[in-house]
Amino acid sequence: MTRVGIARGISLRIYLSLWGQHIGMFVTWCLLNQLFDEETVAEMREETERLERKEITPGVFLMEVLDGKFVSDDLTDTGNAFCPCLL
Fold first, then answer.
1. DSSP state, 75?
2. Smallest Cα–Cα separation from 68: which of 76, 59, 77?
3. How many structural domains does the chain have?
4. Fewer beta carbons within 10 Å, N or C terminal of the chain?
């Protein structure tokens, strides 16, 4: 995939930024729909509130708060049942 993006003139940095925004929007949707584990949400309460107030973007939330990782441990059982193919 990266080769295609770079071949079309999109730098790797831009490609990763777009990827982060896209996945970040899904992560945000899961968070706002209570699919995240309560303990995980409690650990990042301040950052979650910043996201809800739109002070940070979904991509920034993913990359800076979740260190670019979206794993099954972040989700509830319902969340994991909803997106088993994605994680």
1. B
2. 59
3. 1
4. N
What span, in angstroms and rounded, lies between the C-alpha atoms of 3 and 76? 36
pLDDT of residue 84: 75
Domain encompassing residue 17: 2-82
Contact yes or no for 21/7 (Cβ under 8 A): no
The answer to whether residue 21 is domain-embedded is yes
Return left, alpha or beta for 56; rule: phi > 0 is left, psi -120 to 50 is alpha, else beta.
beta
User: Mean pLDDT, 10 residues at a time, over the chain (87 residues)?
Assistant: 52 70 92 93 94 93 91 92 74
pLDDT tens digits, residue range 27-41?
999 999 999 999 999
Cβ burial, residue 25 (10 Å; 0-12/13-18/19+): middle
**Is residue 25 domain-resident?**
yes
Question: Does residue 87 belong to any structural domain of this protein?
Answer: no
